[in-house]
Amino acid sequence: MTGLLGSIRFWGEAIVRGLGLWACDPTTSDSCRYQTSLADICLVCQVFGCNGFSAAFKIEITQSDAETQLVAIKRNTADRRHNGWRIPTQPQKPFTIRITPRQSQSIDPEYTLTTLKVILKLIEKFGAIGAKASQGCGIISTDIRLNDDTITNWNNRTQKKSQPNKSNDQLPSIAHLTSLRSQISALPEAFLKTQINGNPNWQVASQAFRIWLRNQFRTGNNAQAKRHEIMGTVGGKNASKRSDIWVSQGYLAASGIWEVRIVAWNQNHAYKGDIQKSFESLKQLNTLNANWIDYPDQSEKFLKALSQ
Known about the structure:
Elements: H1 2-18, H2 43-48, E1 57-62, E2 70-73, E3 85-88, E4 96-101, H3 109-126, H4 148-159, E5 177-184, E6 202-203, H5 206-215, H6 223-231, E7 245-247, E8 250-252, E9 258-265, H7 272-283, E10 291-295, H8 299-305
Antiparallel strand pairs: 1-4, 2-3, 5-9, 5-10, 6-8, 7-9, 8-9
Helix pairs in contact: 1-3, 3-4
């Protein structure tokens, strides 16, 4: 529950910042604290809650109790320093998210519900959800339907909400999000020596794509610092850092075509040019036979796509 709710909030923050409004980072000491009015806290905290202010909704999740096994996959290389990854063998069974807006004089229940629908629809289209998203999992399909009028009205109401006057600095925002979606006929297996076969809905792809991308940052000036800044690092001499590029596993889309999605948070990134260059190189790989759908870093295009 915590991982799922946290990822929903994360994408909510990115949407609000992309609209030019402020959203705090709840993991820092600068996070919101409610004192006397909604003007004290950001819009995301008005919906999800913060210190001194309850969330505007209650969420319940109903899902199958069946557990999925984890399987180890490793690089197809003589380098034994890497322990590989452990990922689930089966996708999650269908589950239901029940959202009940709380009656409040401060937050309109209808606005709360629409806000959560917008967030979940954006995740369905471009992102992922849950605690295992960093491993390429978390692609969802929902029955949420939004039209242009709903999104426009929600955007107008959001712009009128009371907000603290602060800067978003370098926090994730859909205004600086690059999303690629590839339709591929052959999933890359060159870097892996274990494949999950026989599954009709998804195949291992995230790790192979991430290895290829990481290798693009192994040469040139300051290569190690660049690679760790872009692709992340775990432990060592410095603190761990999350990757600024996320890659999904291969999943079977509604069209019956295999897809992989790649997302980069590149706002004010010191290596933004390197990230874009690696994406352009990836598009040119003839071995993938991929049809790339490119969503550049423009908030209005992301919101427009939610009704398509």
